[in-house]
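In line with agreed milestones, the collection of sequences with tokenised folds has grown. One record among many is set out beneath this paragraph:
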Amino acid sequence: QTGYSSPLYPKSIETDEARQYNTEWSAAYLVEQGVPRNKILIGLEGLGHTFQLNDSNIHDFAAPVVGIGYGGGWMTFIEYCLLVKTAGSNWDDEAKVNYTFYNDQWTNVGDVRAAAEKALFVKANSYGGAFTF
């Protein structure tokens, strides 16, 4: 199924361990383990997973997939920017992350809006800053 590379928040449909695969949970866990907030850096991804959709008409979060997509399952930010020119971008306001799909291909690479949301999160929680990876 499709999934985000680095969402800020969990999706309400996620359960159990899957609710831990987001920035908010990871940062809170580090604080809980005693890491000072000012030592925690929040990542802004420069690449993301790609998926080949099972049905190109079903393309939301957790959509069924056949397997990995374009580029052996990975797409860089530059490739994403080129794809968005053709396919456009979609915003998931719950997870605070973007994604795009084109024909049977689906991917998520953080864009400027997702980075801005993470920057606000860093400031609101007094974390040390952000970095790209």
User: Anything to note?
Assistant: The helical segments are 23-32, 77-87, 112-124. The first strand starts at residue 41 and ends at 44.
